[in-house]
Specification:
The complex is a heterodimer. Chain A is an alpha+beta fold. Chain A has two helices and four strands, in the order βαββαβ. In chain B, the strands form seven sheets. Chain B has a six-stranded mixed beta sheet with strand order 3-2-1-7-20-19, covered by helices on one side. In chain B, a hairpin with a 4-residue loop joins β24 and β25. The longest helix of chain B has 17 residues. The chains are: A alpha+beta, B alpha/beta. The interface between A and B is medium-sized, with 20 and 23 residues.
């Protein structure tokens, strides 16, 4: 799986960093920072949950 | 009991709740047939930008699609768009949609709400509601040529539309029946701040009045208010809430008084579940709680129902999360807010227009709200997570 984030779309809600702190963080303005674009298999469910719960749909997952 | 792989899942409603349910079932390993029925002709789209980037013209409509064509194809759905469900037979386990009888083994209802109008007020040309992408495109087109805009509604949607119209440089009057501005589950705690934010950004706020008539014809020229005054307008937007789309369930045997009544796991009847704006879930104690109309609530409920179908296990109780952006100010709320207890500031200062505030009940923090302080807000969320009062007992207000 490959993760991409759109920092222009990000609404700084912090959902991703709350549900998948190993993959996402926020800068000082709250805008998403991608920590790891290639999650391990064990981290994939967290990446999916973060993408679903992103209010701005700013996280895209490319599966396989 | 987890579902068998050959089970037929039918989802009625192709918004965030319906699509997320389908997506989550696939993510949890379900390989059986999924039919997703949507009455709009459009592929599933994201509703929150409609009152923000789509209205201001920053985004075109196709940027709101929840999945691109590849992502949608990967889900391998039988997608029935432009198809309206008209009946449910719980005993025979069929949905009638587009004149056809569609059998199901598990049904997920995610039909959302329809925008309410103003009772007793004529609807003239230039008067709008905002719920669908078509509504947003029509309103956007009308705002182009408008100079004066009246927005009716003291909830978050009215505030967001007023904010977007100001960004376009229009004169905006925001009219609310209630004296207080409300913000999702935060209720009216931040009413004074929101009203001030509107005024600071050039929105004229008229609260505590109702609209008694539309002036003009065939095109609207203004609205008459209960205090006898008339507010001129080229465009009028009515944002006074939604009515659950449950007409098609009349006679089905489901309890549809203010949405589809469900238990705390989203089950409405045998093999029938409901998620999102249309669903009214009980809390874990089995007590009725008000229906939530918010995007993330729909997503969380859809994830929980998919997990329940696949594993037989309920998910952790959903803690409400809410966000909005008004005039560039980011407002976020997490948890529950008792209406009788004032908020406590725990970071920043409301006077500086940057703060985090908490709602506390019996010593425990049940909700936090952030105003232009996203990092501190995220830190404060953990205070709510640790509070058993929120996850186990619920918070009566």
């Amino acid at each position: 799986m490959q993760i991409t984030v759109d920092r222009d779309t990000c609404a700084a809600a912090g959902q991703c960093a709350s549900v998948a702190s190993a993959l996402f963080d926020q800068d000082e303005d709250g805008v998403v920072l991608l920590l790891n674009a290639e999650p391990s298999e064990a981290e994939e469910p967290f990446a999916r949950r973060a993408a679903s719960l992103c209010p701005a749909r700013a996280i895209r997952l490319i599966e396989e | 009991m987890p579902i068998a792989t050959e089970s037929r899942v039918v989802i009625v409603g192709a918004g965030a709740g319906g699509l997320t349910a389908a997506e989550a079932l696939r993510n949890e390993g379900f390989t059986g047939p999924i039919t997703l029925i949507g009455h709009e002709p459009h592929v599933p789209y994201h509703r929150p930008p409609l009152s923000k980037q789509v209205l201001t013209g920053e985004w075109t409509a196709d940027r709101t699609h929840l999945l691109d064509a590849t992502g949608l194809a990967r889900l391998d759905l039988h997608l029935a768009l432009g198809t309206r469900a008209t009946a449910l037979d719980i005993t025979g386990r069929t949905v009638t949609a587009g004149g056809e009888l569609i059998p199901y083994d598990r049904l997920i209802i995610a039909t959302g709400v329809m925008a309410r109008g103003l009772a007793g007020v004529r609807r003239l040309a230039g008067m709008h509601t905002l719920r669908t992408i078509d509504d947003a495109i029509a309103l956007r087109a009308d705002l182009e040529a408008a100079r004066r805009v009246v927005v009716i509604g003291s909830g978050v949607l009215g505030s967001e539309i007023a904010s977007a119209a100001r960004k376009l440089g229009r004169e905006v009057v925001l009219i609310g029946r209630s004296r207080a501005m409300r913000l999702g589950q935060v209720g009216d705690h931040l009413s004074a701040q929101i009203e001030q934010l509107h005024r600071d950004n050039g929105v004229a706020v008229r609260s505590g009045v109702t609209v008694t008539d539309a002036i003009g014809g065939p095109r609207v020229e203004g609205v008459a208010l209960s205090d006898g005054s008339v507010v001129p307008a080229d465009v009028v937007v009515v944002a006074v809430g939604g009515a659950p789309s449950t007409d098609w369930l009349a006679g089905s045997g489901l309890d549809i008084r203010d949405g589809v009544a469900c238990d705390a796991t989203g089950q409405a009847a045998r093999d029938v579940y409901a998620v999102g704006d249309v669903a009214r879930w009980c809390d874990e104690a089995g007590d009725a709680v008000p229906r939530a109309e918010h995007h993330l609530n729909a997503v969380e409920q859809a994830l929980a129902v998919a997990h329940l179908l696949m594993t037989g296990k309920p998910s952790r109780a959903i803690i409400p999360f809410f966000w909005s952006e008004l005039h560039g100010t980011r407002i976020q709320a997490y948890g529950r807010f008792a209406s009788a207890v004032p908020l406590e500031t725990i970071a920043g200062d409301p006077a500086d227009h940057r703060f985090v505030a908490a709602s506390r009940r019996e010593g425990r923090i049940t909700g936090v709200v952030g105003w232009n302080m996203p990092r501190d807000f995220r830190d404060a969320r953990t205070l709510v997570d640790q509070s058993p009062a929120v996850t186990q007992e619920g918070v009566p207000s």
